[in-house]
Design goal:
Elements: H1 11-24, H2 28-41, H3 66-74
Length: 80
């Protein structure tokens, strides 16, 4: 059972729905319902994961020197 309603579509949306209904051999109503369902079931995009750097008050260390840096901080007796 369907609900009858009136919706005003933008011209570009109407054109694309008409084209979709013809390509798929659907009625205009079927094309609208399928398109709305697809949009409602689509998961929203995830928020981008952002790393916010914080100044720890330590000098910047090039990535190829990190082991030397930690040796200096912790001492040479560090065990892995």
């Amino acid at each position: 059972m369907g609900i009858r309603t009136t919706v005003t579509l933008d011209e570009d949306v109407y054109t694309r729905l008409r084209q979709r209904s013809r390509e798929r051999g659907q009625s205009f109503k079927e094309a609208i319902n399928e398109t709305v369902r697809d949009g409602l079931l689509k998961k929203p995009p995830l928020e981008p994961f952002v790393i916010v750097p914080h100044d720890l008050g330590l000098p910047a260390v090039p990535s190829h020197k990190t082991e030397d840096f930690f040796d200096a901080l912790e001492g040479l007796d560090r065990k892995w």
